[in-house]
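$ ./design --mode recover --in tokens.txt
reading tokens...
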């Protein structure tokens, strides 16, 4: 197999796959939980999310060994797990695969919607620095301005052609995070000035935002499949644990110091809080460009899932390419419409995290573990998986409900 990645390259891809708009929303997440509860909660969510990644890998390794597969993606692992699991569940294997693919598409398109809002609000704040960030009257205008550029960027059909853009976005993100760190550690108030815990009714928003940030489970199998030394990926000191520990520390530090500095004024992205001075204005533009470029990378996944099955139904090959571009435009217009309808960045992130990310990151992994190894009787393992499953369902139901309620209150009340 050619173009296999080294351990360092895999670590870099792992960090990039997990550090995006989620880290910028961490102060907003802690506003919904409090300084103490939020900090401990982020660590807890991180541990559970990484454990679920290991559950997915364990099921994948088991089925690759038993079935002779060289590699598997998330949906394939789910399908084979159901096919070889308890007899009563085997008839649902095809349905389960489709469910995972649907949530993968929802999650990635949800990220695209968030990116639309993020880029438009960043540009809007640079042009109108004195405008109230809670005034969404001009959001549709700025989202409409960037729409043609998104349509043009997403005409790129091959992932290899997007690689240079990805490297550029990585460099921009790193530079932006360094400058934000400089701002965060200046003029910090005492910790006693911030609440240690928030109204428990806001916790679903916290968990939704946290899961949105930690939802990197979709990149885990592709990363391991492309490694020269896949055995280095897992283990206590493997790439996965080491990389995700770095990610968790970055999240917790950004959330803690961001909320400590901005308190109840913390917004859906910390870039909306930093001062409108030349250095920090450059950060807003840096992240706007980096996230704009990342849109095409997130958009690639749902296209790869949905388009092949649609293309098979087009008998005339001459129409396949034009209709692919039409379908691309349709999906982009869908994300544009959702971004225009729900312009509140913080609530949109919480909604995507609760409604879709929780399913892939928290609900399916323990289910896979239970059905893949159903012949291995272990009460402790069963209880642990049930705890994670119940927690995931709690985040899904309560987080989605509270996010939708807050969005309605923000837009119509």
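writing sequence...
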């Amino acid at each position: 197999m050619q173009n296999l990645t080294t351990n360092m390259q895999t670590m870099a891809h792992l960090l990039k796959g997990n550090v995006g708009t989620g880290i910028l929303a961490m102060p907003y997440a802690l506003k919904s939980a409090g300084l103490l509860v939020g900090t401990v909660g982020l660590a807890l969510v991180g541990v559970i999310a990484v454990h679920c990644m290991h559950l997915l890998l364990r099921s994948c390794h088991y089925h690759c060994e038993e079935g002779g597969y060289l590699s598997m993606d998330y949906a394939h692992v789910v399908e084979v797990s159901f096919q070889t699991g308890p007899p009563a569940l085997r008839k649902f294997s095809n349905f389960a695969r489709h469910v995972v693919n649907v949530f993968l598409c929802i999650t990635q398109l949800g990220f695209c919607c968030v990116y639309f809002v993020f880029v438009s609000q960043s540009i809007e704040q640079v042009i109108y620095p004195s405008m109230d960030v809670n005034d969404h009257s001009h959001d549709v205008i700025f989202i409409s301005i960037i729409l043609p550029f998104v349509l043009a960027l997403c005409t790129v059909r091959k992932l290899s052609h997007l690689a240079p853009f990805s490297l550029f976005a990585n460099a921009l993100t790193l530079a932006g995070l360094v400058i934000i760190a400089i701002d965060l550690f200046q003029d910090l108030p005492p910790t006693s000035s911030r609440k240690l815990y928030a109204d428990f009714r806001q916790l679903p928003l916290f968990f939704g935002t946290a899961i949105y940030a930690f939802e990197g489970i979709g990149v885990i199998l592709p990363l391991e499949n492309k490694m020269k030394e896949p055995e280095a990926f897992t283990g206590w000191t493997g790439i996965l644990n080491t990389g995700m520990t770095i990610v968790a520390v970055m999240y917790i530090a950004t959330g803690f110091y961001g909320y400590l500095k901005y308190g109840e004024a913390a917004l859906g992205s910390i870039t909306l809080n930093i001062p409108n001075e030349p250095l920090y204005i450059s950060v807003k533009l840096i992240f706007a460009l980096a996230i704009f470029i990342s849109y095409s990378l997130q958009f690639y996944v749902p296209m790869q899932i949905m388009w092949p099955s649609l293309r098979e139904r087009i008998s005339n090959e001459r129409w396949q390419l034009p209709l692919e571009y039409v379908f691309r435009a349709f999906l982009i217009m869908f994300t544009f419409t959702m971004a225009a309808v729900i312009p509140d960045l913080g609530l949109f992130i919480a909604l995507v995290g609760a409604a879709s990310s929780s399913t892939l990151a928290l609900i399916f992994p323990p289910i896979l573990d239970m059905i893949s190894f159903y012949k291995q009787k272990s009460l402790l393992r069963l209880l642990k998986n049930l705890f994670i499953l119940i927690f995931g369902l709690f985040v899904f139901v309560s987080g989605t409900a509270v996010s939708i309620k807050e969005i309605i209150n923000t837009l119509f009340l």
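exit 0
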